[in-house]
Input
Amino acid sequence: MSGKAAIITAFEPSAFMGGIETYTAQLVDLLKTRNIETDIYHTGQILEEHGLHNDYLGRLYLTGRKVLASDEEYDLVIANAFYGLGYFPPKAKTYNIFHLTHMGFAEEIKGVVPMNQYLEWRLLWGEFCESVSAFNRLRIAVSESVKDELRIYYGIDDADIVHNCLDVNAFVKQDREQSRRKWGIPGEAFVGLYVGRWDVLKGCDILKNIMAGAPDVYWTVVLGTGSDKGAVPMPDNIRVIEQAAHENMKEIYSAADFMLFPSRYEGFGYVIIEAMACELPVITANVGIAKTICKKGPFREMLLPDYSSGMEEIVLTAIGKIEYLRKNKDWKEHIVKEGRRLMEQEFDIKQWKEKIIGILGL
Output
């Protein structure tokens, strides 16, 4: 098979580290194996005036119009999230991949952000951009929770679910002692890991309280794009790593004893499956792919209470789970082996490729 495809997305995948960019790079590699040449269109390419008050909406719209102007070249168009808004009406065979829903996101963080921000995310990016971006094209959801949100908020009940994936041969547990030496982590410490933006939407307020309540844990904080290192507490038991290369993350996962994932909302949550593939237990909020994984076997024991339970209940529960992991090594060994087995069976890139090839008709 051969042909040409366009992918419409937010950022250049090689210049920005994030879940959608990881997904886009995997998609480009997959299309290449089918002899399909890929052009990537993203909002950073838009330099001309658009005349809209909201600059990002204007650049997003013009990105799609650029594809429309030359879509006779393409056999296939794939849009991430609402970035295909301006590609309308679609003429080529078109897919929209929903990595989250902004209406679902807005509802989960209501009261945490200012009302104008909540309304923008719900009404502009959700009710307008996402609903239009889903029109007259095939839809893919990256998790069961995203498919549920598409049905609840937009009345879309025909999205195919294709979980995000990872290469289980690349994400493998590394030597613990060597990894700790390389990253400056004390060899005998009981190590907790946090990976992501330092942002209240990611639960940094919860994390700060858990850190304060577990002072005998050595915390490694791997900051994502857009984080302010100065906002992170800096006592002696916290090590901050900024912008770790993705290929080095398997070492950092292997250096820890557990990962804490207190995010208020996720469409998927890549770091959950990466950590589990590296045999690291994950104490997590019930968001994204955790909603699916934590229905099974021992993983339900790693769930934190919903945010409606209040800060104190979440913090106390997290500290209790941390102590249980510390004191019950056999149980910890069991859950990490089960996690690795699950990643190999259901989240490896081989399964993802097979599903995507079938859905895209490749």
The domain at 3-165+348-360 is CATH 3.40.50.2000 (Rossmann fold).
